[in-house]
Amino acid sequence: MTEIAVGVVIPMLNEIDHIGACASGVQAQTCPAEWIVEILVVDGGSLNEQIVQGLRAAARAMTSVQV
């Protein structure tokens, strides 16, 4: 069987209040178990603390994280 990979890119700029919910929403989508789902959070120039806090929020929202 051919593996199916789905990539989701989430652009972020000072989105500390929303990135966790956004990542959770992507992960909550129903996909077949054999699919590989990759979520990329891309920062567009947030303040340094925003980047760290945003990535932590996204990581907390997901069940498995690869950095």
Key attributes of the depicted protein:
single chain; about 70 residues; alpha+beta; two-stranded parallel ribbon; 2 helices; 2 strands; about 35% helix; about 25% strand; elongated
What is the structural class? alpha+beta
Low-pLDDT runs of 5+ residues are none
Main sheet specs: 2 strands, parallel
Query: Can you write the helix and strand succession as a string?
Result: EHEH
Number of helices: 2
Helix content: 25-40%
Question: What's the N-to-C terminus distance?
Answer: 27 Å
Strand content: 15-25%
Number of domains: 1
Described by the principal axes of the CA atoms, the overall outline is elongated
Oligomerization category of the chains in this entry: single chain
Order of adjacent strands in the largest pleated sheet: 1-2
Number of DSSP-assigned strands: 2
Whole-angstrom Rg: 13 Å
What is the typical, i.e. mean, pLDDT? 76
Secondary-structure topology with pairs:
Layout: E1 5-12, H1 19-27, E2 36-43, H2 48-61
Parallel strand pairs: 1-2
Write a structural description.
The chain has 67 residues and is α+β, with helices and mostly antiparallel strands. It has one domain (5-61). The chain contains 2 helices and 2 strands. It has a two-stranded parallel sheet with strand order 1-2. Helix 1 (19-27) links the parallel strand 1 (5-12) and strand 2 (36-43). It is elongated and about 40 Å long. The relative contact order is 0.29.
Short structural summary:
The protein has 67 residues and is an alpha+beta fold. It is 34% helix and 24% strand. The mean pLDDT is 76.
